[in-house]
């Protein structure tokens, strides 16, 4: 199986059923995408597969085969994507564990919907859990990032 | 090592009732000799506190200041806040401040148990002193070098200067020389006056871990790596005290990548922080280990708790709460006699289920053993006990065990128990010391927590003609955390009772509190704010019920029942614990409780007209020596669906070191409390936790969480005042505020948590 991860060509010949999350974390050592539930229920593991926010914990390698994968480590070269910048400005994170997934989900939302309504934010971001309870700041940061992108 | 002795001593302590001081939330604390003066606060914690700048501060030749933080970061912002305290007194430029995480080493760093909302309460002053001492040492070095009096050397914002000679140097230039100097005596240090603070008390300092978090490079326990690392998952007995009687190791070994299948013996009960035992599968990646585990086909023997059933246990607790043979834990006036008259007597029972902390990062730890030393990386709240327990298990001295504390992806009390780190050490030993990372799945986390207890709280009151309570009886029946340390005492320990029950400060002449027996059938542990959850829920719901019965406005009634502003000695109420703090320094101050209520109700527009099925609800609670009040605005639709468009929360926690993190803790508390009110619970059937993942254990999400949260910081102007806790005290009043709002909106009183579909009939 061949795929591109953060711009680098990769090949894999292990268990084709292995979820992309474990390939990224255990084989490539890219631990930015997190393990939260392993069942598509929490969003901690969200990465972009061909630009689409996806739960890497339930995406088998056979499905990732041939795709372009971007993880939080590859979202921007230096952490300055508007979503990352807004997250820092508003100090969104508490423990931070969910935030890679939140940021990847939000970045995909804004790529698709540059000026999201509260309903848009609800429907995209409700796929991600933050046990620390940072939702109000996530919402505010998405709006801030959207403003920056419009400028 | 002290912790070790403490636990065995605790068995003795348990029988002593009110005399048994449990000063530490994290671990049972020292029994104090009667002739010793009582110790409080950080002094009373195992290994106390340190303020030597050489322990906590290093300065590189290029001027970079590294602050070593000895408390665990789990989202409360402690790495930022401790660095703020030190950098401020050091007069360091924030942009040149880094943090390093201390390894487990309490004899060096002082107490490291990150729980009980104590980090800044106990270390703000010592850390300020460390910063001030380092600053003085830099000035002395410069004075020495320039041959001028130290009084004339100014240290400001990373620059040392001498006005008369025009000499200047950076901190880095003087660091080596300063390090050779004497550490100034504590008494000679002059701390900054608050009007000169650069960082303390400011909202705009930012989070020191932001860059790592937003780029995915921050390392949590789950992310620990080592060369040649193996990955393990463990199938643990689904019932506490159970064991695997057979398993199919061969089937697991057939999964490509699986290296070994290892039995872990279950510990004797009660098992404190020991791993539960079971069957481990070790593989070259996590996925292979999980698939191997699926193939094990284990037959379990359940042991005595195999019949634990939440519905049946609820009935048991109710029966206990209705019995009259509980231990009297507070008695003032004669509540029983005053309750005798049938006139205006109100009673209610509240049920608060088990909860799992469910930190977003499930437990995970990496361990390796080499040359007689064990090195561990783990997301632990209690590094020292982790070190000591692993050393015991491996038969090594504690000095041969290094525990590196990673970031914690949430803790909430779960990671105060190092069972998962001990597992990693055991499995590394099985693999001849190879690095092994133990990964807990969400199922593992929900099935093998140290759960928040389950409670029935029964309250009875009699009202006088004005509707004010003249008698108050509170019975609390719940398994105790003590059951993990010693043969189940079946009754709450003083620290559990002191979480809102015995120290309840209402102005009522006849008050009685009783604690009937309740047996533990699973591991009970700390969960953010602990026994304050059931106590606050019951008391604050009941006051709202009484206000309704009396036909009075809930806010006015609550203030009336709290009574006038006064400072109460908690020991007079029957609380010998007082969060480990000196009752003279930390009395229960009803004036501060009143003020948060007044603040939050005013901000929320208490008393305004609301549309149908929409209402405000109020609750207030004192815990972790801080005062919090909450007003929740709820809307209940025709189908019984509850939304919380707005919540206000006010906290008085004394001086505000890091206001932005106080706000974020309050926001998080409101959201976590809304989950406890509306959706989350752990139930048992046949001894097994029934919830497997976030589908059956729902927690708030973006669309179900309270939408707008307004945090009001009250008080805190006087930095001479002692600090209160922040991480936990926000939580207890949230749930009753929501439940009270639901009553106001619908007329339906919820006495059993969570609400679930109770409103949809
Ligand atoms: S870990 Fe993938 S959705 Fe939770
Ligand atoms: S910040 Fe901790 S889970 Fe979201």
TrEMBL record, chain B:
It holds the Pfam family MoCoBD_1. GO terms for molecular function: oxidoreductase activity. SUPFAM superfamilies: Molybdenum cofactor-binding domain. Gene3D superfamilies: Aldehyde oxidase/xanthine dehydrogenase, a/b hammerhead, Aldehyde oxidase/xanthine dehydrogenase, molybdopterin binding domain. Transmembrane segments: none annotated. Residues 215-304 form the Aldehyde oxidase/xanthine dehydrogenase a/b hammerhead domain. InterPro entries: Ald_Oxase/Xan_DH_a/b (IPR000674), AldOxase/xan_DH_MoCoBD1 (IPR008274), AldOxase/xan_DH_MoCoBD2 (IPR046867), AldOxase/xan_DH_Mopterin-bd_sf (IPR037165), N-heterocyclic_Hydroxylase (IPR052516), OxRdtase_Mopterin-bd_su_IorB (IPR012368), TAT_signal (IPR006311). SMART domains: Ald_Xan_dh_C. Coiled coil: none annotated. This is Twin-arginine translocation pathway signal protein. It comes from Paracoccus salipaludis.
């Amino acid at each position: 199986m061949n795929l591109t991860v953060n711009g680098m060509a990769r090949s894999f010949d292990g268990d084709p059923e292995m979820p992309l999350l474990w390939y990224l974390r255990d084989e490539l050592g890219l631990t930015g995408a997190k393990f939260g539930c392993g069942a598509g229920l929490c969003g901690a593991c969200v990465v972009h597969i061909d630009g689409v926010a996806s739960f890497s914990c339930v995406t088998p390698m056979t499905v990732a085969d041939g795709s372009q994968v971007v993880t939080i480590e590859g979202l921007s070269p230096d952490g300055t994507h508007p979503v990352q910048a807004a997250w820092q400005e508003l100090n969104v994170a508490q423990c931070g564990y969910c935030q890679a997934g939140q940021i990847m989900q939000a970045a995909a939302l804004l790529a698709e919907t540059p000026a999201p309504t509260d309903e848009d934010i609800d429907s995209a971001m409700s796929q991600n859990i933050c046990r620390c309870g940072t939702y109000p700041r996530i919402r505010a940061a998405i709006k801030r990032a959207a403003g920056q992108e419009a400028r | 090592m002290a912790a070790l002795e403490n636990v065995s001593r605790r068995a003795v302590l348990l029988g002593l009732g009110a005399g048994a001081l449990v000063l530490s939330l994290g671990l049972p604390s020292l029994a104090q000799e009667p002739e010793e003066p009582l110790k409080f606060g950080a002094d009373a914690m195992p290994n106390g506190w340190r303020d030597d700048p050489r322990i906590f501060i290093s300065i590189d030749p290029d001027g970079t200041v590294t602050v070593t933080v000895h408390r665990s970061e789990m989202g409360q912002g402690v790495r930022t806040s401790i660095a703020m305290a030190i950098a401020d007194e050091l007069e360091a430029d924030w942009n040149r401040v880094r943090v390093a995480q201390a390894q487990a080493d309490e004899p060096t760093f002082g107490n490291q148990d990150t729980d009980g909302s104590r980090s800044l309460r106990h270390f703000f002053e010592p850390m300020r002193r460390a910063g001030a001492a380092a600053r003085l040492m830099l000035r002395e070095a410069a004075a020495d070098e320039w041959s001028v009096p130290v009084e004339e050397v100014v240290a400001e914002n990373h620059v040392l200067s001498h006005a008369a000679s025009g000499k200047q140097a950076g901190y880095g230039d003087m660091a080596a020389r300063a390090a050779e100097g004497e550490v100034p005596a504590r008494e000679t240090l002059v701390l900054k006056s608050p009007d000169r603070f650069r960082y303390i008390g400011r909202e705009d300092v930012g989070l020191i871990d932001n860059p790592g978090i937003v780029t995915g490079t921050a390392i949590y326990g789950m992310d620990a790596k080592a060369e040649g690392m193996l990955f393990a998952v463990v199938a643990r007995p689904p019932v506490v005290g159970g064991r695997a009687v057979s398993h199919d190791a061969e089937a697991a070994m057939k999964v490509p990548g699986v290296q070994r299948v290892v039995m872990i013996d279950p510990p004797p009960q009660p098992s404190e922080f020991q791993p539960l035992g079971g069957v481990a599968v070790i593989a070259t990646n996590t996925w292979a280990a999980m698939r191997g585990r699926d193939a094990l086909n284990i037959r379990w023997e359940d042991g005595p708790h195999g019949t634990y059933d939440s519905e049946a246990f609820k009935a048991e607790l109710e029966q206990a709460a209705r019995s009259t043979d509980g231990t009297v834990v507070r008695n003032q006036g004669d509540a029983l006699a005053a309750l005798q008259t049938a006139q205006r007597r109100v009673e209610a029972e509240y049920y608060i289920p088990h909860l799992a902390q469910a930190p977003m990062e499930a437990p995970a730890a990496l361990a390796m053993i080499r040359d007689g030393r064990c090195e561990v990386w783990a997301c632990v709240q209690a590094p020292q006990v982790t070190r000591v327990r692993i050393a015991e298990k491996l038969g090594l001295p504690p000095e041969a065990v290094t525990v590196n504390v990673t970031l914690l992806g949430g803790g909430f009390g779960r990671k105060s128990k190092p069972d998962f780190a001990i597992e990693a050490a055991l499995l590394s030993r099985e693999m001849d010391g190879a690095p092994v990372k133990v990964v807990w799945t969400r199922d593992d986390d929900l099935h093998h927590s140290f759960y928040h207890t389950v409670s029935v709280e029964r309250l009875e009151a009699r009202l006088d003609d004005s509707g004010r309570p003249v008698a108050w009886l509170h019975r609390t029946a719940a398994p105790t955390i003590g059951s993990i340390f010693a043969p189940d005492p079946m009754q709450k320990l003083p620290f559990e009772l002191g979480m809102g029950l015995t120290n309840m400060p209402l102005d009522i002449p006849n008050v009685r509190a009783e604690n009937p027996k309740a047996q533990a059938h699973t591991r009970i542990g700390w969960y953010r704010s602990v026994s304050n959850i059931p106590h606050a829920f019951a008391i604050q719901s009941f006051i709202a019920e009484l206000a309704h019965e009396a036909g009075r406005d809930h806010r006015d009634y609550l203030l009336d029942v709290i009574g006038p502003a006064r400072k109460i000695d908690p020991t007079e109420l029957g609380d010998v614990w007082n969060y480990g703090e000196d009752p003279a320094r930390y009395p229960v101050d009803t004036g501060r409780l009143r003020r948060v209520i007044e603040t939050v109700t005013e901000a929320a527009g208490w008393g305004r007209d609301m549309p149908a099925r929409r209402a405000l609800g109020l609750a207030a609670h004192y815990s972790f020596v801080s005062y919090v009040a909450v007003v929740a605005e709820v809307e209940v639709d025709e189908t019984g669906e509850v939304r919380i468009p707005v919540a206000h929360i006010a906290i008085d926690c004394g001086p505000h070191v890091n206001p932005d993190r106080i706000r974020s803790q309050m926001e998080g508390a409101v959201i976590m409390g809304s989950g406890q009110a509306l959706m989350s619970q752990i139930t048992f059937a046949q001894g097994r936790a029934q919830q497997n993942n976030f589908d059956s254990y729902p927690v708030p999400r973006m669309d179900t969480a309270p939408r707008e949260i307004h945090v009001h910081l009250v008080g805190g102007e006087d930095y001479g005042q002692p600090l209160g806790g922040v991480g936990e005290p926000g939580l207890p009043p949230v749930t009753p505020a929501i439940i009270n709002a639901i009553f106001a909106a619908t007329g339906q009183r919820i006495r059993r948590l969570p609400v679930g579909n109770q409103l949809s009939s």
